[in-house]
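name: query_chain
kind: protein
chains: 1
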Amino acid sequence: SFANCDTSVTTVRIASCEYYCHVLEAYSDQELRSVVKVAIGEADHLSSDTITEYKEIQIHGELKLAEHVELVVLNETYRNNTAILDLARQFTEKNNCCLLYTSDAAD
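structure:
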């Protein structure tokens, strides 16, 4: 399920993949433009700076990281943090996905 904000908020709008328009109504223009860019393949991912309010997704059912995750984007501030980098590299190697930094993702 998807939510336009934290699900603990009483004004939350909950949606499924099939019925999502009422949640999209709560997105800012900038957030919608970002969603469209990714949806039409103009970008694989975008900076989270485009998100003006926290969004929540809850996955109900099986999630296989090696099959369902293609890319991990790590904040640029961790580029020189060897402990975090080691964990990220272990994760990406184990799950056969790519690792980018936010500065690379902006390109």
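note: The first strand starts at residue 2 and ends at 3.
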